[in-house]
Amino acid sequence: MDFEHESGRFFKLDANGQLLAEVTYQSIANNTAYAIDHTFVDPSLRGQGIASQLVKSVVDLARTEGKTIQPLCTFAVHEFETKPEYGDIWRRGAAE
Known about the structure:
- The chain is of the alpha+beta class.
- The protein contains two helices and five strands.
- It has a single domain (4-89), classed as Aminopeptidase.
- Helices cover 26% and strands 32% of the residues.
- It has a five-stranded mixed sheet.
- The longest helix has 16 residues, at 50-65.
- It is globular and about 40 Å long.
- Residues 1-96, 3-91 form the N-acetyltransferase domain.
């Protein structure tokens, strides 16, 4: 699925402009890392791996920018705990 991107979020809207899916993130640690703080997928789209794709969008952005990620929301934490390929950019510790 292709997502739209604006500062602090990747998202997908339906034809009527209603939010279908979203991940939000913010800069932390003097702009050297991102904190993923929210994921949402409309119930009609759940079970299709869309939330994982959203988190991966932030991961890809962070890698491109040479930043790390601190997952804060429950889903993002789960993704980082179960995907060893995210270990290189996982920032552990308190968000600043």
